[in-house]
Design brief:
The complex is a heterodimer of chains A (115) and B (107).
Chain A (H helix, E strand, L loop, with lengths): L4 E3 L2 E4 L5 E6 L6 E8 L3 E9 L2 E4 L8 E7 L2 E6 L8 E8 L9 E2 L3 E5 L1
Parallel strand pairs in A: 2-11
Antiparallel strand pairs in A: 1-3, 3-8, 4-5, 4-9, 5-6, 7-8, 9-10, 9-11
Chain B lengths: L8 E5 L4 E6 L8 E7 L6 E6 L4 E2 L4 E4 L5 E6 L8 E8 L9 E6 L1
Parallel strand pairs in B: 1-9
Antiparallel strand pairs in B: 2-7, 3-4, 3-8, 5-6, 6-7, 8-9
The chains are: A mainly beta (115), B mainly beta (107).
């Protein structure tokens, strides 16, 4: 299996621009998580999905952030408009809850820089 | 999900056992203890988990106290490649990562 695939790996954009981060989970996994990591705040859970349905989005910082999972093999995290404080590494992770509870498989992350 | 407390940093000599502690005094009866590590800027990697009994796999051992209020992750023979941030997580739904323990394995 190719693992969790995230794109882009690096993104540099200017304040006010829309940013879309993409994630392809491991085939067959039923949970998908979006995390954000910064030096100041560490690894923060933003939102997670079960069977494509958002379960808890309480970690989404504000209305500028939105996440979707239109099908079992694809999810997006969108920031509109972006701000410099959104600069971080964004990780996507997936898991198969029933057979491997607690074992999250992470992607390599998308490093976002907002100028 | 219960909160965890870990020391911010630890050193370990190469070849020796690394013992990483974690306090989770508010853990509830059905919550598991999970350990992950993050090497440099990579995504976190699952290591091991347990509920009540001690667990061992090819990477590490997990010792959970009888009252389940604390646990210790043991890397039996630390190598330089084990230098990483180690996270202890309690729960099972949201998987909140704290600040972890930065382990440095010294040659």
């Amino acid at each position: 299996d190719a693992g969790v695939i995230q794109s882009p790996r690096h993104e540099v954009t200017e304040m006010g621009q829309e940013v879309t981060l993409r994630c392809k989970p491991i085939s067959g996994h039923d949970y998908l998580f979006w995390y954000r990591q910064t030096m100041m705040r560490g690894l923060e859970l933003l939102i997670y999905f079960n069977n494509n349905v958002p379960i808890d989005d309480s970690g989404m910082p504000e209305d500028r952030f939105s996440a979707k999972m239109p099908n079992a093999s694809f999810s997006t995290l969108k920031i509109q408009p972006s701000e410099p404080r959104d600069s971080a590494v964004y990780f996507c992770a997936s898991s198969l809850r029933d057979s491997r509870p607690g074992e999250l498989f992470f992607g390599e992350g998308s490093r976002l820089t907002v100028l | 999900d219960a909160k965890t407390t870990q020391p911010p940093s630890m050193d370990c000599a190469e070849g020796r056992a690394a013992n990483l502690p974690c306090n989770h005094s508010t853990i509830s009866g059905n919550e598991y203890v999970y350990w992950y590590r993050q090497i440099h800027s990579q995504g976190p990697q699952y290591i091991i988990h347990g509920l009540k009994n001690n667990e061992t796999n090819e990477m590490a051992s997990l010792i959970i106290t009888e009252d389940r209020k604390s646990s210790t992750l043991i890397l039996p023979h630390a190598t330089l490649r084990d230098t990483a941030v180690y996270y202890c997580i309690v729960g099972g739904n949201q998987f909140y990562f704290g600040t972890g323990t930065s382990l440095t394995v010294i040659p």
